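Annex B. Sample input.
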Amino acid sequence: MTYADFMNAPKRRDRAATRSALLDAARRRFAEHGFDGTGVREIAADAGVDATLIFRYFGSKQDLFDAALATEVPAGLGERAAGPVEFTDALVREVVLGDPAGNDGEHPLLLMLRSAGRPEVRARLHEEVCNGYLADLAARFDGEDAALRAELVGALLLGMGVMRAVVGSPVLPAADPERVRARVAAMVAALEA
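Annex B, continued. Sample output.
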């Protein structure tokens, strides 16, 4: 094969890289505009590919949205040995203050909040937050009102995420992460009593 033949040959697509670029572009668009305000052509243009690849790799805009929202519980959070303070600290460190790869610093739960006007997104948000994180946290509290205490912690963490990523508050995003973690730990420890 000559150099000219090589240069004119169809380019091989790196499926994994294309899929990753589409997910990154989708997360940015969904984070900024929500589901209804985001078009597949815009996502594809941001990723530098043809819009038909969204349907080839994901099937539909809804399936792409679902893939963009996929969350993984950070390593170690599922261990029952950790109490409420340790569990919450891991969430603060890895979810609220962390920078999830490919999410432009936003956790997929915050992406869901921007599209919470859609019933299916609200149902998924309820499932992940209430039946996932909060149920796990409630099981770590001893005594009565475990579910209430877990929801209070959940409200704190979601509020922190919204203040940092949506509101852009002046103090919390710039605060020393260790200081934030210590303050949150003190609040959760007070709820253990």
